[in-house]
Design goal:
This protein is α/β, with parallel strands linked by helices. A hairpin with a 2-residue loop joins strand 9 and strand 10. The protein is elongated. The relative contact order is 0.16.
Length: 280
Amino acid sequence: MNTNIYLYAFSNKSKIAEEIIFIYKNLVDEGFKISASLWICELLKEELSVDISSKLSSNDIIISIGGDGTLLRASKLAYVHGNALLGINSGKLGFLTEFDLKNIKSYTSLIKNNNYSIEHRKLIKVQYKNMCEYALNDVVIYRGGFSKLINISVHNSDGLITSCVSDGIIISTPTGSTAYSLSAGGPIVSPDVNCLIITPICAHSLMHRSICVSNEQDLTISINSVVSKNCQLIIDGSIKESIASGDNVTVSNTNKYLKLIRFKNNNFFDKVKNKLSEWK
């Protein structure tokens, strides 16, 4: 077995620290060589007197420990370096994660024997002024911390797609269709569909609904009037910029993909039904 594992977690709270130690011990028992993000290295040294490297190699499998938010942060590392990413869910829903912590023993043996497949999830590019970033889930323009609505329009090369007065708008990939877009009334879309989902947030209208468009044309989101002082540009859950009236954000297709590790028992719609039925 030549597989190395790189552990990634976002929070160093006591609960996640216990879970990291548990996962580390299981992986070591299976013979994996382990490296990790810096704070995990320090945690393992303090708790177990174990020294491990914080260096990420391109052939490592990255394991994110947490929920979908943690996996989204880990995805930035994974697609830049070309690593495969596996999510272990210790959060709540975990649409993107592959299995829960309690099942780690059975799955580590599958990894050890290379008994898994790679699922490719397409990324989109987000451009605003001099900023250029990639998103796995979604791009959100939100009114910020003020109670006034904003006027937003979305165009492609054929012309106007939609305009609305609302709290904001979500441009979602199929991967992100089970995230914020779903909460705002958007559809669930299979991750292998080549589209983008445009979903208004609390539109002041009876007519506005989500629209699915081809991902082959660039989308331009324009802020036409802002009553509040600043809107927020949010990419995969992280606030990136403040934007104002007259500003444009461009969302475009890419040839970049995130590689997610999947096992044979993974079925997207079974996961959707199971996850939504357990959400409380």
